[in-house]
Design brief:
This protein is mainly alpha-helical. The protein is about 65% helix and about 5% strand.
Amino acid sequence: MSDVPPDDPFAGVPFLAELSKAMSARGPVQWDVARQVALVSVGAAQGEDNVDPLARAAIESLAPVADMHVRDAVVPLTGAYAAPRVEVVNRSGWVHHTLEAYRGTLTEFARALRTDEPAGDAAAALGRMLAPMMLGMSIGTMVGGLAVRAFGQYDLPVPRDPADLLVLCARNVDAFAAEWSIPADEMRMWVLVDELARHAILGSPHVRAELRAAITAHAAGFRPDPTALAERLGGLAGEGGDPAAMMQRLLGDPTMLLGATRTAEQERLAPRLEAMVAALAGCADLVVDGVAARLLGGAGRVAEAVRRRRIEASSGDRFVEQLLGVGLDEARLARGAAWARGVVERAGTEGLARMFAAPGRMPTPAELDAPGLWLERIALAP
């Protein structure tokens, strides 16, 4: 039996029927649309090959070694370490996990753009009806773009659920190794160390709670601007160029698509969130460099290649970073690294560990540039 209502006027027109179904579905985001668009973006709409069994076996055999060394480096910092389950996936699997992980935060973003004000005209009413589907398309485009290059789940420094799972995309790891002429197992080990270190640091309970709250507050801080979309569309049209590329750019940035504008509250919160993210990245890089020196003879070439890739992120990456407030450009990475080194030089690993001992101990923007000031404040903390 068909699930299309008998009085649906679009029932005989497949495209319009699907459009009607999407428009009538509930919720601020059409997650089915997001999933379908993301799978199309990674070329997996009709399915995808399973992970290469040899690559899976290699990663699974290296994981316990990486885990042991990361544990030794992280416990003095965070005071605890719980080994996650490592799941090796293809790109479509990465899409599935990522959409689920970001669902809560992106739903808050969508809710922030809803308005109870009456629509001014038929076009505005139609736009409101289409918003959940269009946002689903935009999210799918962004996540699909991330899926073709992400090694694991911490290319963006965002804590994920479930907290005991670590997802790695073997295809992307091996493709990067081949592109840079890096031995596959060396690259796999480096990625395991990097992802496990970030999972442990971002998973520290106080850090996880504070960072997630700040990210959610940033995403929920956008507000709708009825005139913004028209202005941005006019700007795109004025630039000329390929209409398909213009549409891709529009779908890749939900703030443009839905006329979302940053608020004064976001501008106030942004420096604090940026300082938190930079400091945590600096801690993670410190751990990764130390472990890599023991396991891989430093692996400086791998680290340099990966960090250059991080800085030279795609436009899709940048849109997600802007949406969540977790951008890590070269300057912020350098500030975070300098802060972590500065703390260790002054107070050793024990000094850096105090950030993980209690809530409210991540550096402020001013303290990020002055490790000594942060140590003075923490020394006075109860």
